[in-house]
Automatic annotation (TrEMBL):
It comes from Variovorax ginsengisoli. It comes from the Bacteria. Residues 190-304 form the OmpA-like domain. Pfam families: DUF4892, OmpA. This is Outer membrane protein OmpA-like peptidoglycan-associated protein. Transmembrane segments: none annotated. The keyword Membrane applies. It is found in: Cell outer membrane. SUPFAM superfamilies: OmpA-like (SSF103088). Keywords: Cell outer membrane, Membrane. CDD domains: OmpA_C-like.
Length: 304
């Protein structure tokens, strides 16, 4: 099934092609969104099923994200549209990261792209047939990596091709907008609520190694535990729901274990801490939006 997109007599208000890539001749923009700094989860392997994805099936990117949904009316094919994009991207210095079509994309590529909230408009649902084409490319430059994702689908019932484009320009976000909670602030939240969410512990996508940028938050957690020697805590890892339940529970457990290990290195008695990963099972917000998924990815200290 192909969800109903509006007829593309004209571009939606405020829409424009990305400066790096022009549209296919005759295409109109039916959906458009630009985020100055956001995340994008892009497949780098075939997607056999959303509940059985491995962490390395996906790559998480951050930066300026432009999402454009094009409608191409007439007798064009998905293959013709994709071949034109391939040639344009190659001329622009982009290298293929992953490319597939039809069965080689796995039976649930369209379902993931449509329902992850990361690429296509909410509600779009591409049937799996031999007219679907996926392409992920990357270009490295002085200002960082730029990724272009394309998903091109034929809609024969409406005599059109749908082309979804996502451009992710890797760049640092504006910093200084959020400060690390101090040990005293962490203590007040635990005293009042029995737990505190910490967003300053960082990991690479699908990885469980604590990144060096996490040190300020780890230091404050260590100060909290040092100044309250009777306090025992659960260190709980949380994820969003992208990637399936079992892989996310496993990832969150490994991340919780890594935080306990990092705090132990800061001279906190490991007997005072119990690591537990619950994956996406205790969200603080909806997983249907970028903002909600960001809020759900966290580490919590919970009083035992």
């Amino acid at each position: 099934m192909l969800a109903s997109l509006p007829a593309a007599a004209a571009d939606v208000s405020g829409a424009a092609d990305h400066p790096l890539l022009s549209r296919f001749k005759g295409a109109k923009i039916a959906d458009y969104k630009v985020s100055a700094f956001d995340e994008a989860t892009v497949p780098v392997k075939a997607i056999a099923g959303r509940d059985n994805m491995a962490p390395d099936d996906l790559k998480q990117l951050e930066g300026k994200v432009t999402r454009i949904g094009y409608v191409i009316e007439g007798d064009k094919t998905a293959l013709e549209v994709m071949r034109n994009y391939e040639q344009a991207l190659a001329r622009g210095g982009f290298q293929v990261v992953f490319q597939c079509a039809a069965q080689r994309c796995g039976q649930d590529m369209g379902g993931f792209l449509a329902n992850s909230g990361k690429v296509m408009p909410a509600g779009f649902n591409a049937s799996f047939d031999d007219k679907n084409h996926y392409l992920l490319t990357r270009r490295t430059g002085a200002d960082g990596d730029v990724h272009v994702l394309l998903w091109v689908v034929e809609d024969p019932a409406n005599k059109r091709v749908l082309a979804y484009e996502q451009v992710i320009e890797g760049r640092p976000m504006d910093t200084g907008q959020v400060s690390v909670l101090t040990a005293a602030e962490l203590g007040k939240k635990i005293e009042a609520e029995g737990r505190v969410a910490i967003y300053g512990v960082y990991f690479d996508t699908a990885q469980a190694d604590v990144k060096p940028a996490s040190r300020p938050s780890l230091d404050e957690m260590a100060r909290l535990l040092t100044s309250n020697p009777a306090l025992r805590v659960y260190v709980v890892g949380h994820t969003d729901n992208v990637g399936g339940l079992a892989p996310n529970v496993d990832l969150s457990q490994r991340r919780a274990d890594a935080v306990v290990k990092a705090l132990t290195a800061l001279k906190i008695d490991p007997q005072r801490m119990t690591a537990k990963g619950v994956g996406p099972l205790a969200p603080l917000a909806t997983n249907t939006s970028d903002a909600g998924r960001t809020r759900n990815r966290r580490v919590e200290l919970v009083r035992q």
